[in-house]
Amino acid sequence: xxLYNKRLKGYARSLRINMTDAERHLWxxxxxxxxxxxxxxxxxxxxxxxxxxxxxxxxxxxxxxxxQHYTDGMLxxxxxxxxxxxxxxxxxxxxxxxxxxxxxxGVVENILxxxxxxx
Length: 119
Fold this sequence. Notes:
Number of strands: 4
Oligomer: single chain
Number of domains: 1
Strand content: 15-25%
Mean pLDDT: 92
Strand order of the largest sheet: 1-2-3-4
Radius of gyration: 14 Å
Distance between the termini: 19 Å
Order of helices and strands: HHEEEHEHH
Helix content: 40-55%
Number of helices: 5
CATH class: Alpha Beta
CATH superfamily: VSR Endonuclease
């Protein structure tokens, strides 16, 4: 069972309701087991973090980063967060908003290349 901070549950729900355009665009391509039959969840709490997208069977976390992620402080926080998730056994993929909005086929191909072949 995946452990999470229960105080994040309401915030995660709010993030699902208020997804960015890039997150909505990617969600439309990965929801309903469209990628090799793997189920994805959006805005999922894992320990003390909320990840944008998560596939438990593929052990994969996908983050879609807006411009705020490219400041010195956030880069360091994201690096620490990724390390923690990797230590839990997850593969972490990061894409920026522009990449998702302008090259969704390339993003989906990259995700597929980083997933087990069947679900």
